[in-house]
Amino acid sequence: MDIIRVENLSVGYGGAAVLRELSFAVPAGEITAVIGKSGCGKSTLLKTLIGLNPPLSGEVTVSGETIDFSSEASLQKLFRKIGVLYQNSALLNSLNLYDNVALPIRMHFRGLPAQVEEQMVTKRLSQVDLLHTRGKFPAELSGGMKKRGALARALVLSPDIIFCDEPSAGLDPLTSAEIDDLLLHLNQELRMTIIVVTHELRSIERIADRVLALHEGRVHFWGSREDMLSSRNHFLDRFFLKVATNDH
After folding, report:
1. Which domains does the chain have, with CATH numbers?
2. What is the pTM of this model?
């Protein structure tokens, strides 16, 4: 079953297309890595899939419902189905970790009993091993702890899909591997669909079921990780050679 369907999608800014006529379908319960050179449109695609950047043309369907980007009701329905882990974590410095994680609950379910909110937040903080830091502010957390806290916030409404924008950016290899482990656990134990924008070769090889490669504004490759690693695609060979060289 496909949880996301993209059909003839063109997206960009100010009427100028960055990505043109993209079509692909994301199976439910898998981890999909979105890759490509810097500036190829990975983040632009992500913004459209999470409802923040209306397409120039084409359609995005999530869980069987086509997103109407002009309808606040349609977008709100989408926002309750997804969670987003932003590249810079995007925790609010003025709030402690508990209140940061509780934000989506308070935005979408105003008036929810405090006991229910506490159960939801506690569950997610425990999943990312941060319950002991619930009262700390972002400035008191390490980079890896901020990422895990942001992941707890993305999970708090039990979404169908988690979108992760460069989850390993700025992290050391050990902490990056811990984030990979968390994503794998969520996928394997909860069968959660995860879309990861990344250039980390180790993460792609370790966690991705499928890979979507963007190049020159279009889908250049869409298939399983195994097919990608065994392909003789010139662009992919050059991309991974560059990534591997930069890692050393």
Report:
1. 2-90+163-246 (3.40.50.300)
2. 0.90
